[in-house]
Q: What sequence folds into this?
C-alpha cells in the first residue's frame, strides 16, 4: 500500500436508507392474501404477461380490506418509525396509505426499473418468497438520473458507488424506502412470487414554516 492510499479518506454523503421489518404472523397474512386475491380482477403488467396485479386500479387499495386491519396498522407503525427514527423527520400528524395492490410474479416475469410518483414512502411486503424468487434491486442512480451533460465512464470494478444494490428478503419481510428511489427486479425463476406493494403520504406536509393537508 502506498502512502497515497494510506492517506486517502472516503466520506459517504446523503445515503439513502432502506429498512426491513418482519411481521410475526406471516402465515396468517399469506392465507388472507390468497383469499382476498379472489375478490379482485387480474390485470397484466404492460411489459410482460408473467407479472400480474390485483387491486391496482384507481380508487382500489387492498390494504383497506377488513381482514388486513391489524396488518395495515403494523405497516403504519413501521412507516412512522422509518420516517421519525431512521430518516429523522417530524410527522406533524400521521401517515396514510394512498394506494396498495397485490403482485403475483411467475417464472420469467420481471419488473422494469421504476420509481413511484405522488408518494413519499413506498414499500413492499413479501407474502411468499422462496430461493428462486427474484430479490428486489435498487438501481444505481448514475444510470437512471442524467445531468447536463451526461457523462459515463467504463466500469473497471464494482463499488458501492457504481453498482446496483440487491435486497434479498425473507418471507414476512416488509421493505420501506423513499419513493424516488429507482427499483425493480430481474427475471424471476419460480412461480408464485407474491408481494403487497403500497405508497404512503403524510397527512400533513410541513417543513416547519409552510405546509398543507392531504385528504384521500
A:
Amino acid at each position: 500500500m502506498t502512502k497515497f492510499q494510506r492517506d486517502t479518506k472516503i466520506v459517504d454523503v446523503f445515503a439513502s436508507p432502506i429498512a426491513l421489518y418482519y411481521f410475526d404472523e406471516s402465515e396468517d397474512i399469506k392465507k388472507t392474501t390468497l383469499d382476498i386475491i379472489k375478490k379482485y380482477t387480474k390485470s397484466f403488467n404492460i411489459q410482460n404477461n408473467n407479472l400480474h396485479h390485483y387491486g391496482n386500479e384507481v380508487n382500489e387499495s387492498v390494504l383497506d380490506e377488513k381482514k388486513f386491519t391489524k396488518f395495515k396498522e403494523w405497516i403504519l407503525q413501521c412507516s412512522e418509525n422509518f420516517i421519525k427514527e431512521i430518516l429523522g423527520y417530524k410527522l406533524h400528524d400521521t401517515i396514510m396509505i394512498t394506494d396498495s395492490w397485490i403482485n403475483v410474479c411467475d417464472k420469467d416475469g420481471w419488473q422494469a426499473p421504476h420509481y413511484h410518483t405522488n408518494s413519499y414512502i413506498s414499500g413492499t411486503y413479501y407474502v411468499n418468497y422462496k430461493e428462486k424468487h427474484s430479490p428486489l434491486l435498487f438501481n444505481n442512480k448514475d444510470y437512471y438520473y442524467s445531468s447536463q451533460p451526461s457523462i459515463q465512464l467504463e466500469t473497471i470494478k464494482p463499488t458501492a458507488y457504481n453498482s446496483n444494490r440487491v435486497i434479498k428478503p425473507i418471507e414476512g419481510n416488509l421493505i420501506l424506502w423513499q419513493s424516488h428511489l429507482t427499483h425493480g427486479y430481474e427475471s424471476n425463476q419460480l412461480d408464485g412470487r407474491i408481494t403487497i406493494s403500497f405508497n404512503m403520504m403524510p397527512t400533513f406536509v410541513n417543513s416547519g414554516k409552510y405546509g398543507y393537508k392531504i385528504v384521500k
In short: The longest helix spans residues 69-87. The radius of gyration is 19 Å. DSSP finds three helices and 13 strands in the chain.
